[in-house]
Amino acid sequence: MKPSIIELPKYLDIRGNLSFVEEDTHLPFKIKRVYWIYDVPGGEIRGGHAFKETQELIIALSGSFDVVLHDGEKEHRYSLNRSYYGVLVPKMTWGLMENFSTNSLAVIISSTEYNPDDYVRDFDEYKRLKLVQGDNIVD
Ligand code: TYD
């Protein structure tokens, strides 16, 4: 699987807009966890790791930030600044988040419960694991 942008429904309304995400309609995984990142000081970078099993959908619920993904060969930058789409991050994708705007709010919908053993925090180790696994198994 490759990273992709998932566009969510949006109901534009003069009373205020509404969007939603449904597990079976919009996601290729079952939701096990939702967490959010907020109050990020200017210039800070979050992430800098890959997950062996976890898949995620990252949405900029408020404000903006960049999600920078690396598949072991190429880097892709996704600038998120709307609450009705997100970037789907497959397992074994190296990623970080940066350029957080003031008061930005990132919500991350995750396919697993928190497990520190699922993290790969060393980029060389990540590239080695990608080579060993090959793209077929990573899918
Ligand atoms: P971490 O994933 O390392 O943050 P980032 O990748 O954005 O730099 O998580 C930071 C801390 O929060 C870490 O000590 C573990 C804790 N944590 C949980 O307890 N549960 C969670 O679901 C997440 C994402 C983190």
Task: Kindly describe this structure.
The protein has 139 residues and is mainly beta. Helices cover 14% and strands 40% of the residues. It contains two helices and twelve strands, in the order E-E-E-H-E-E-E-E-E-E-E-E-E-H. It has helices at 23-26, 123-138; strands at residues 4-7, 10-11, 18-19, 33-37, 46-51, 56-62, 65-70, 75-80, 85-89, 94-98, 105-110, 119-120. A five-stranded antiparallel β-sheet has the order 1-9-6-11-4, with no helix packed on it. A hairpin with a 4-residue loop joins strand 7 and strand 8 (75-80). The radius of gyration is 15 Å and the shape is globular. It binds thymidine-5'-diphosphate. The site of thymidine-5'-diphosphate has 6 residues, from strand 4 and strand 5.
- Spans of at least 5 consecutive residues whose pLDDT stays below 50 are none
What is the C-alpha radius of gyration, as a whole number of Å?
15 Å
Helix-and-strand structural type: mainly beta
Oligomer: single chain
List SSEs in N-to-C order: EEEHEEEEEEEEEH
Helix coverage percent: 10-25%
Query: What is the overall shape?
Result: globular
How much of the residues is beta strand, in percent?
Answer: 35-45%
Ligands bound, unique: thymidine-5'-diphosphate
What is the makeup of the main sheet?
Answer: 5 strands, antiparallel
Number of strands: 12
- Side-by-side strand order of the widest sheet: 1-9-6-11-4
Report mean pLDDT, rounded to a whole number: 95
User: How far apart are the first and last residues' alpha carbons, in Å?
Assistant: 5 Å
* Total number of helices: 2
